[in-house]
Amino acid sequence: MSDEITGPRSGYASPMTELLGLRTTPPKERADAARNRAAVLDAAARLFAAEGVDAVSMDAIAAAAGVGKGTLFRRFTDKSGLAVALLDERERDLQERILFGPEPLGPGPAQAPPTPVDRLMAFVDAYLDYALDHLDLLRMSETASAGARYRIGAYRFWHRHVAILLAGIRPKRDAEAHAHVVLAALAGEHLHATVAELGTQRVRSATKDVLRSWC
C-alpha cells in the first residue's frame, strides 16, 4: 500500500480538544421527560435481558414502563432508537476512559505516555468488551437502516480516536481511511457472524494480530 497519502485532514496537534468535541453527551430535557425516558430505558433493558431483543415488542415496553405507546414512539421511533439510547451510557463510559482513564487505554502521564500502538490495542480490547457485552443492541442500532452505523454520533468519536492513533504510528498513510477499515472489524453485524462461527477469543486475537502486522 502506498505511503504517499497524509493523515487526518483536520490535523491532530490537540487530540484531546478534538475528542472532547465529539464525545457523547447526555440529553437535556425537562424533568418529566427525563423520568419517562428513564422508565422506558429501565423497562426495555429488563425485557431485553429477560426475553431477548427480537422477542420484545414496543407495546410490551410501553406497558412495562407505564407510558403511552404514542409517547414511546414519538421519543424513540422503534427498537433501534431504544438500542441507541441504551448504549449511550455505555459509550460515554468508554469515551471517558479513553479521554481521562489510566493507560494504555487512557493517555497516561504527559512525560511518559503509552505508545500509539499500545493505545490502539487497548482500545480494540475495550471496544470488544463493550460490543460483545451488548451485541444484540449494538447490531440493532447499527443496522436499523442503510448506513445507520455511520450516523451514530459515537462512531465519529471512535473513528477520530483511531485515526489519531494511526497517524502517530504511520504518519504518511491515510489515517482517516484506515480508521474506517479498523472499525469495520468491530461492526456489530460482523462480530455477530464471526463470533458465532469462531468464538470470542479467536475473533479478538485475529483482530489484534492483523492490526499488529499493519503497525
Provide keyphrases for this structure:
0% strand; globular; disordered N terminus; Tetracycline Repressor, domain 2; mainly alpha; 12 helices; 215 residues
Just give the CATH class of the domain at 15-25 and 79-214: Mainly Alpha
| Computed Rg | 19 Å
Q: What low-confidence regions span 5 or more consecutive residues with pLDDT below 50?
A: 1-13
Per CATH, what is the topology of the domain at 15-25 and 79-214? Tetracycline Repressor, domain 2
SSE ordering: HHHHHHHHHHHH
Shape: globular
Architecture (CATH level 2) name of the domain at 15-25 and 79-214: Orthogonal Bundle
Instruction: Bin the strand percentage.
Output: under 5%
Determine the structural class based on helices, strands and strand pairing. mainly alpha
Explained architecture:
The protein has 215 residues and is mainly alpha-helical. It has a domain at 15-25 and 79-214: Tetracycline Repressor, domain 2, CATH 1.10.357. 70% of the residues lie in helices and 0% in strands. The protein is built from 12 helices and no strands. Helix 2 (31-51) crosses helix 3 (58-65) and helix 5 packs across helix 7.
